[in-house]
Input
Amino acid sequence: MKSFLKNLMSRRSISERPMKVVFVASHPTNEGVRRRFPGVASGLLALACCLALTFAASAQQPTSEIIPSGNVWPYTTIVHLYTTWPDGQVFMDSGTMIDRFHVLTVAHAVYDHRHGGWAAQIDVYAGQSGANKPFEVAYATFFRAFPNYMDEDDTSETGCHSVGNGDIGLVTLDRPLGDETGWLSYFFNNDDKFFEGRTFATTGYPGGEAFGGQMVHQTGPLIGAMGGAPSFGTLQWSLDSMTSIPGQSGSCLIDPESGLIYGVLDLGDDQYGYGERITEDVFNTLNQWLDEDAA
Output
């Protein structure tokens, strides 16, 4: 059964073009793909013109804490991604350091067939908040994404995609930025009840004039876990508790009690936000990808 949701694509262009909304559908498969930078073609998921979206359309705004400087852990682990696509467009997303030289984010921050496929370049600023950039820029050297997401993106002329379709990406950096910033750990929980009503936190870079590229921290209860394509899953929350707007895409969903990452924010509509859940299969694939780089 297809779930038609408005996909904010949770990212924004540097030129702050008007946001657009797209509708999402469904698809399956697992296994990870790796591309070396600079690679063959590169790109990201574009914003389709189905319905105009403004920042105010994100329902009632939850309480947001602006982090003026990300030079204190754990905010040092939050990164701002500037992605340049083969067609020359530049978009901004969020991500989190998960070891010495890897960033966890969304797949649509590294791959979009409508802009050329794989990203041409990604600049990574850890701890950025507005003009404050406490760490020297790092650059992506590898990109990874799940084939399930890529297959759906390749067949979509509008940039539409479904919740729980594997929209998770991994960025390998050109230097061990994590030695300076520290990093967060990720994990999985197979019990759906674990997520029901549980308070989660997310920190990233929502777009719009209200935030202006500043790092923003939010906490709020999840509604719970939803299904997805085989091997994948979804976490859902009300926009009254946490936002899900362009620029936030790639922000990790963190359990404050344990400090562990259990998902990655990637979609939203006018009522709910959605994140890709780190399932056991996703957890194992991420570990495999990290091991490949360490070899």
Q: What stands out?
A: The CA atoms of residues 15 and 26 lie 31 Å apart. The mean pLDDT is 81. Residues 280-294 form the longest helix (15 residues).
